[in-house]
Amino acid sequence: MTPHYIQRTFTALTLLIVLAFVACKKETPRPEPLPTTHSPYITRVLEYLPAVGQFTNELPKYEAGDTQEDMNRKALDELKDNKRGLVTLGGWGGYIVVGFDHTITNVAGQRDFRVLGNAFYSSSKKEAFEAGSCEPGIIMVAYDANHNGRPDEDEWYEIAGSAHVDPTQEPWYAFLKSHAPQADLNCYRDFEMTYYRPANEPASNEVWSTYIRWQDNKGNSGYKVKNPFHAQPYFPQWVKGDKLTFRGTRLPQNGYNQSSESPYYVLYKFRYGYADNAPSDSKDATIDIDWAVDKQGRKVYLPGVDFIKIYTGVNQENGNLGECSTEISGITDLHLLKEDIPN
Ligand SMILES: [Ca+2]
Ligand SMILES: [Ca+2]
Ligand SMILES: [Ca+2]
């Protein structure tokens, strides 16, 4: 039997130890949540490969000897840190693949990122529809599901913009069908197009209408035109080989010449879901990751995206404006910027 005084001492000691432990615990500072150091802007360019275009080799500038890595870095220099420089993707199929230092979260019911470009609307009162310089780029997204820091082939999904869903619903569709019967208003998911390197560059700066030959997998072929305003080569100069082939979705042609006397082209805006299709500050420049679809066009759910690819979506020469070419000047994470844009 333990004497009472020993028991009491033991109890008092236990109490002391417990109190000391609680006091000790109280003094341990709670870990503060780490401040967000993620950038809301593009931090990586994995690949920049524009198609033939009047700004190719200029935005950004190619210099003799530049490699693919040099051009990736030059594109990143224009797009990082909210710099808002301009990067051209050239004609149909030309693309850029970019990455971020974090996953852009797919918030339910909200737009998730914004693609900046140089689209603008014409101030002409003649327009019955929103139109001007709308050069839609198709957007693809990848969630790094296997966490290897790369967009693997099976991680890519396409954002189904309005013409993917139903091109006949574009407000200008019926107008173009009746007023521009030569316009190809189909939307193809399995398009393929090859550009052939020209044997030589023009000697003068006059218009050269048979400058760069192209051919698609729908039985069409033609030439990309050299215009007098842009003297540099239009075929990306760091690419080796005699031809360049791109694959993807091709959108309906959206350019319309309003004047039969002197060419005056306007490019009609698609409803939603594309890059460089609406002014950068408008809601139609923002994207909901929930619009992603697989190759069969079925909706997929992605928790977020780590990589984004954008490629020019229209194949069309627009007289005085030159070829339809998507330009981008950045991508922003709407959630990090606290821009609340309900879908
Ligand atoms: Ca969302
Ligand atoms: Ca991956
Ligand atoms: Ca543009």
Count of domain modules: 1
Can you write the helix and strand succession as a string? Answer: HEHEEEEEEEHHEEEEEEEEEEE
| Percentage of residues assigned to helices | 10-25%
**Adjacency order of strands in the biggest sheet:** 1-3-17-7-8-16
Question: DSSP strand (E) fraction?
Answer: 25-35%
Return Rg in Å: 27 Å
The description of the largest β-sheet is: 6 strands, antiparallel
Mean pLDDT: 91
Shape: globular
Structure classification: alpha+beta
Query: Given the structure, what is the number of helices?
Result: 4
Structure write-up:
The chain is of the alpha+beta class and 343 residues long. The chain has one domain. The chain has four helices and 19 strands. The strands form five sheets. It has a six-stranded antiparallel sheet. A four-stranded antiparallel sheet has the order 5-6-14-13, with no helix packed on it. Strands 11-10-9-12 form a four-stranded antiparallel sheet, with no helix packed on it. The chain starts with a helix and ends in a 10-residue tail after the last strand. Bound molecules: calcium ion (3 copies).
Protein traits:
globular, single chain, 4 helices, binds calcium ion, 19 strands, 343 residues
